[in-house]
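Hi everyone,

Forwarding the result from last night's run.
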Amino acid sequence: MLRRFTAALAFAFALGCGGSQTNPPPPPPGKPIDPQTAQALAGSLNQAAGVVSGSSLPEALAARGAALALALGARSDDVMITASLLAGSIDRAALSTGAASAFGFQIQIENLAGSTGTETFTGVFVFESATDWILVAGPAPGSPIPPGLGLLGSGGQLWKATAGQESAQLQSEGATCTASLPSGVTSCKIASFVNAGFGITASSPASSGATGSKTASLAAGSLSAGVSLVVDCSVGTLCPAKGTTQVYVAPTTFNLGLGGSQRFAATVVGITNESVSWSVDEAGGGAITSAGVYTAPTTTGTYHVRATSVADSTASAVATVTVTHPSGIAVSVSPGTPSLTVNSMLFFEAAVTGSPDTAVTWSLDEAGGGSVSTSGQYTAPGTPGTFHVRATSLADPTVSAAATVTVSFVSVTVSAQPQGTDGQTFLACVPTTATAGQVTYAWHGYRDDGDTSGLSFSSLTSNAPTLTLTTTGTVGASFYVYCVISEGGAFAGSGYTMVTLTTGGAIPAVTVSPAPIHAGASSVTFDGTSSSNAQSPAIQWVVQYGGNVSPASLEDYLKIPAASWTTVYSDNAPSSLTETVPAAKFSSAGAYRVQLTVLSALDEISENEGTFYFQVLP
């Protein structure tokens, strides 16, 4: 009382003297709770709320209130737990004798389904670790248990108090909480409590792994650290709901060494079938049995163990497992997933934590995956693939990390201007993926029938990204032009384009009758009269057989190598563009082609050639 009077007097004096300087507000009472511990405790309390919500809504609401207090930045006071204060053996104690932390809380619940007024619970939350804690609350100071309530968390398991006494009374409310309020929380204030204590003399298991009865006690006293909350159940989802399937896993977080194991327990509420199926979210994240026994993988990382309701597959809960190496040393490699072209180079860096010795050795997981130097300089192989560059700690050779490298050929674009040429075309070869070394170029070309005649390059040098192509031959003939890129004398990639000769007259067109043609027909007539008729043309007809093709299609005909076609008829007809071939030439069913060549007598260099593919049926 004297302290509050002195503070008020000082404030009045400052106003009376016209003082304008505002002193910063004093820090709230109590000491801060480690954020990680607060988060883990809030998770355990929310899990407990789900476990008991199907049987005791007040206990669920009290657990949610304490979890909210932690989330909103509740601070704590130091208290002493005496495990032997109650009758019974010490091994029944939920918390061991010694120092613990505690805060008081009051939660007012408005618009709770099934309630005609505001429900108020005042309680105490005591904890020694993230998994060992006690929550008591009651509707009035000094409530016996029951109707007062109590939850005991010990070693990741949960008990419900069945006998005892709780006491906690709100003394005063102060400043508003600085944290932003979640939906449904309409008020949060710093508060202090008196007569805060409890004595739990008996409890019953509330989780599947809990056995026996736990006891606990805290001598009644004052708590300067605490919060007062007002929650509106008509807003948000903070209030537990009955009748919905909920799954809870304990413990919710756990640390394991490589290959270590831990048993997890699951509780299902809101449904009569309490069976769950166990799984691990990540591939390679370890294994878990049907009994909930998890075995960590041999690779460090963060993994998630999931329990899913057998009766309701939409309801599940997850525990987070952090797998670390026993030595505490960790290695990382950067870049982690680079992409390179064949024969290119890249420097990798390794970071070592948990040891003053940060040296590493470099190696490759795959034979033929390239090479890596002692300084981390990697040279990709000459073949594409996926490879792994590994850095291993010198301080602990069992700890390593690897980068995944994707190696591919250089992507090459070849362009021709113009694409349809009157005899000359400008070519350009451009790598479209990055190259690291000295690049050389080589050009190759051939006609679509495999012949290499009728085209020449302005330069045959191996280091010319641009040059001129000269083409001669039949109008309509297509030429494939390839550009091959090498780095350091090794193949790196290639690309191609197609050029078509467009001068010298129209491409001869050939029609065939009758259609369809069957083996043994009296004769077959080929008509090329729609072709351009040069002055004094010399005409040559060639009919070739390529063998059976199934299924028959133009694409299949084109796949037959030129050397495989057998000439069954050939005739020089100096003035005739129509040719009738005896049926004996088509005694075999299969693929045929007829070729009409029009050679101008005035310009024997200009040769126009047309080819028509057809099939003779049985």
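The radius of gyration is 43 Å.

Cheers,
N.
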